[in-house]
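Hi P.,

Sorry for the delay on this. The queue was packed all week, but I finally got your sequence through. Input first:
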Amino acid sequence: MKTAEYYLLDVFTDQTFTGNPLAVFLEAGGLETSTMQALANELNLAETVFLSAATGPNHYSMRIFTPTRELPFAGHPTVGTAHLLAELSLANRAQGVVLQPPIGELAVSYNQERATFTTAQPAILQDSTIDRITAVELLGLDIHQVMGDSVIASFGLPYHLIELTDVAALESVHISTTTWASAVVPSSAEQVYLYVIEQHGGTETVVRSRMFCMHASICEDPATGSAAAALTGYLASLQPDALQCRIHQGVEMGRPSVIHTAANGEIKPGYVKVGGNAVVVGKGTLYLK
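Then the structure:
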């Protein structure tokens, strides 16, 4: 019987059973797209990665699937895959690795246990269809807990960015499925990223966040690199100085994560660096027909 082996990692964390789980299938280039989608659906993780054999030294083609669709780009699969390749000595930490999802090449560097990549394209920013009143209805909050109208930011996967006043507001969010259906589903972005800035400036800006999306139903993600990049790209557009962020996510889910981002300064305008740790937590085999 034909089999497919995968590794399981927790990403944007250095502790097992925290952060965001990720499955990575190696040398999966021979699999049909429908098989990849079926495997991702079977594992039912936020994302599953399928790598082809190396296309050159430290270069790998990568495809990313949720349980229901393929993505052009995602952050935690990029960081997790780079970490796994280094752990298995399939990538050279000193030289880095280049991953090639559909959106374009992502060059990943290593600094001790942290893997960091630069987005493949500049941030795309636009007005959001979710105004302040709609956000209040969507999140089940009071008007004073929402800091104005939201915006949409994207590096290939768009997010409504909604700033809240404090962590208490973030913790008390209760998503309205009715408002989601009327305001989020028809929009150009079906992901909502909530954030609170706990500390401005200094050596880094500290953020608490939550991310909600819809697969079969509305669900929450414990660590979202592409959303952290989108937020950083937006914040960087508001000021010209070098920006470094430490973003905490997943706390409310019991799966705390830490995402490090940077923009401006020596980084090309509009682009963002995203980095984090990861740990390998297991290995498995699925049987194919």
